[in-house]
Amino acid sequence: MRSFTALTCAIAVTACSATGGDILRTRSDGSVTQPPRPTPLDTWQIQLSGALDTTVDVRDYIIDVATSAPVIRGLHDAGRVVLCYFSAGTLEPFRADASRFPMSALGAPLADYPDERWVDIRDATVRAIMEDRIIAAAGAGCDGIDPSGLAGFQESTNLDFTRDDQLDYDRWLSGVAHGLGLSIGLVQGDAALSRDLVGDFDWAVVWTCLDTSCAPASPFTAASKPAFLVEYGDETQVPAVCPKAKSLGLSAIIKHDGNLDAFRVGCP
Predict the structure, then answer these.
(1) Are the beta carbons of 179 and 120 closer than 8 angstroms?
(2) Across all residues in the chain, what is the average pLDDT?
(3) Which of 14, 107, 115, 146 could be bridged to 158 by S-S, CB 3.0 to 4.6 A?
(4) Coil, strand or helix: which one is 248?
(5) Whole-prediction pTM value?
């Protein structure tokens, strides 16, 4: 395992604190701050496709991990918390590091995204790739990471890793992120997984789950940690979505569909 302190001090857009490994953010005006984190019932946006709209007046932005450092700095200067998305459980063929995954670590294609394949989370090369992604995210200025694919043990992966393997991997990812001063979110999963990981993760993202009261978010809201909800539709869904989401302690937004472009309807 590489030294997080050494890696932190080597990241050009950050400064090392006197105590060692804490990441400090240097803004364009020269001020230096600790990376902010999401807080309960924050306003937020997620955009993973199309030209990034940086003008949405919200506190937290979830954007792709490949977003450039100047764009992230601009979001910081506007007072935004920047959370950077990537899949930590699958091979995304468009990523610059896609060729690094060994064939022996690749599993079945995803049912909903057949161009992606599950990866063996026990594999040392897979972990090295993910560690490098998190280091790059810190270097670009991300305040946190939003890794998806952290419940692959529940899927038909053609790999034989277990729930215990999954917990080990998910906690390892959390340790890498926290070692670099970043927050980390847990995406979906189930309530039992959330209960096991709420102590290791800082916030949660759940999807289209109001009909079941968004059980995977409950351990986070019970621990006074932020939980973000995405529902699909348009502004006509606000009366059905927003009051219930707020009653559950969820920060809800409405997106058109799974493309996750700039369209957003927030809750008042």
Answers:
(1) no
(2) 91
(3) 107
(4) coil
(5) 0.90
